[in-house]
Design a protein that fits this description.
This protein is an all-alpha fold and 246 residues long. Helices cover 85% and strands 0% of the residues. The protein has 10 helices and no strands. The chain has helices at 5-18, 20-41, 52-86, 93-124, 126-136, 139-146, 151-161, 166-199, 201-235, 239-244. α4 packs antiparallel against α6. The longest helix has 35 residues, at 52-86. The radius of gyration is 19 Å and the shape is globular. The N and C termini lie close together (5 Å).
Length: 246
Amino acid sequence: MRLPYNDLWNDAVALVRGQQAVLVALAGAFFFLPSLLAAYLLPLELAPGQNLFEALPRHVAAHWPMLLAANLVEMLGTLTMLRLFLKADGRTVGGVIAASLALLPIYFVARFASGLMIVLAAMALLVPGIYVAGRLAPLGAVIVAEGVRSPIEAFRRTFALTRGHGFAIAGIFLIVYVLAWLIAAIGTAALGSVAILIVGREPGLLVAAAANALVGAAAGVLIVALAAIVYRRLAAVPPAAQARGT
């Protein structure tokens, strides 16, 4: 089975537009605000001569409770959007959030394990890390759509669905990540510089952080929609075809 990027993109955009008002509110609450607060309250500062790889572990060790809380909020937002896309069941938004909250423990374990797998693969070589990321991209969608209650079963089902499609899936997500990073880096630098000149350093940095969080929230919604679309397409393939990796 082929996964044409143009079709995946159009389907994901249509999915977002279909529930745009709700998604704006959810993205604001679960993606934008936690990211902005983390950037404002817990800025990652590099000492002279220190690189990012040296500073990041110390930053995480010093602030892990708040960083964990921000990540849990983002995970709940991801689950909520996936349920809206894949399994709303006619619930209210509050009902969807409550149903998603019940899946948060298993999703947290599965996502932690998947992140570790990707990092270990990337430490060997970058290409294996990208491949593993592609194979695991629909992990949350599998948990939500199929009601999986075991991390092991979630991984088994996800790897079965994505067999033969690792690089193809990784490609479209990588495009979105790179575009979002470029927009955030260029836009934040430009907007932040202008804001600092106009309103001063501290307010200017806050404006830059808000712009960065806004881009991240928009990219986050699109990534969740893509994960839902990829899952839908792969889950519709007959098991025999999945086994052949076609």
